[in-house]
Amino acid sequence: MGRNANLHDNFIRSILSNKKVAVDYFKNYLPATVSKKLNFSTLTQLPDTYLSDALKKTMSDIVYSCRRKGSKKHIKVSLLIEHKSYPDQYTPVQIGGYIFSALQKQLANKEPLSLVIPVLLYHGKGRWQYRTLADLFEETDPEWKQYIPGFEFVYNNLGALNDAEVERLNNKFLAASLLTLKHAAEQQWIIHNVVKLLLWAAESSPELQKGFIIYLYSGVEEIDEKLLNLLQETTKKDVMSALDIYIEKGRKKGLEEGRKSGIEEGMEKGKEQVVKNLLAAGKFSVAEIAGFAGVPEAFVKKLRAPLK
């Protein structure tokens, strides 16, 4: 179930940019010593202007601010989410850059310094042990380690969580999303659990559901009749139709195949894959397929010929 990094990025940003989902995520996965002192009603996603210009070029993460409970001053705690789908031992260096960039931006904005709590969300299959920045300097003399910046971060490793534990989350859309991220490389697991995942995702807004469905089906190599029927039975008609799924998958697969040969060829491959998906469904006429895919009928007939 191959997925590119941008697909992971877009999905995670879409779900955690929703305040309700973000609140439930933080309540469940921040340490209790932190979450119980935060006033989540004040949770606010910070705009890109909060980051330094240099960092904005490489950062795809999400930053929230949240005030502490009972604070008379406008003290904020910034929550920064970085996600990885593969182990990267130098992530502490990256997180350190985020922390100091955020602090520098606070100073530039003439704000009092506020705490930054980084959260690393990891959903890859490889084993990845938590390590601090100081741990990367293995041969440094102990008395020299005082010169290494020290900070901790919250490590949320989905692979280390039991599925049953995730399923117990009150926010079922969040549960479905985290389970799909955890098992993103396991196509058979997705197919086996698709009904449950779709039913849970249906408890969210149409926009969140649409993003979830696209991500869920992006890793299923072949969308067969059974999966399409499940999709139609468990989701609202105004969220994503079976036809939308065919077209979305065909477009993405074709663009990926044509990526190395240029944009125009990628677009052509995308249309070709859409037509093939619609032909395989066996439900649409040549004229309908041509209209759906935005191609001449002759193009459809040419691709249909080898299938007869």
Overview features:
308 residues; alpha/beta; 2 domains; 5-stranded mixed sheet; 14 helices; 5 strands
Query: What shape does the CA trace take?
Result: elongated
What is the count of structural domains?
2
Radius of gyration: 23 Å
For the termini, the CA-CA separation is 30 Å
Number of helices, where a helix is a run of at least 4 consecutive DSSP H or I residues: 14
Strand order of the largest sheet: 1-2-3-4-5
Class inferred from helices and paired strands: alpha/beta
- Specify the helix fraction band: 40-55%
Number of strands: 5
Pattern of helices and strands:
HHHEHEEHEEHHHHHHHHH
Biggest sheet details: 5 strands, mixed
Q: Into which percentage range does the β-strand content fall?
A: 5-15%
Low-confidence stretches: 56-60
Question: How confident overall, as mean pLDDT?
Answer: 80
Would you mind describing this structure in some detail?
There is one protein chain. The chain has 308 residues and is α/β, with parallel strands linked by helices. The protein has two domains: 156 residues; 96 residues, no CATH class. Helix content is 50%, strand content 9%. The chain contains 14 helices and five strands. The chain has a five-stranded mixed sheet, sandwiched between helices. Strand 2 and strand 3 form a beta hairpin. Helix 9 packs across helix 11 and helix 12 packs antiparallel against helix 13. The two termini are 30 Å apart.
